[in-house]
Each structure stands twice: as C-alpha cells, then as structure tokens.
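Q: What structure does this chain adopt?
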Amino acid sequence: MRRGLLAPILLPLALGMCASPARADAPPKKTPWVVAACMRPHGPGIVRWTYDHAGKPVTEEPWITLIAESSAHHPIFVFNPRVGSKTRYMIPTEWRRAWSGRSG
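A:
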C-alpha cells in the first residue's frame, strides 16, 4: 500500500530534478578593456580609439565598442595626459613611430 502512495509523489520529483532547461542562454557579453593612453597617435581631435584585427585604427562609434566587445585582445584607448608613458607600448609600433614627432 505504501508503494502505491509514494510512487505518484516521488516519480515527478525525480524526473524534475534530472531534466535540463529547454532554453539556451545567450553567451555573456564581453566587457571592453579600457586603457588610458598618454598619446594621441591619430590626431589631436581623437580622444577614444581602438584597432581592428588588421591593426588599423578605428576612431568612430559604434565600431569602437563593437570591436572591443568582440575580442578581449582589443582594448579601447582613451587619451589622458596624466598617465605615465608605459601605456605607449600597448599601441602598435607603426602608430607610435608616426606619432613620435607630434605633441599631445
């Protein structure tokens, strides 16, 4: 008699614990990596930029954010004259050389 009463109660509980959710969750969005830069290698009017997969500068929104969110290896550079000069090594060499003669 006890088996007859417990089976209808325990069977749905056991199946509910083993079942996986039917929906697929969206992949988590990557948080952009923001780096304060001590130089403006692409002109005095450019304050925020990144580089695409080929190493070319991207200076317009929404492309800056889209590229930076697509990969953890593409930081968003933001000009800040108060940071140290060590951040210049994160900027590709060809752009550092082109900037070397400019001021701020």
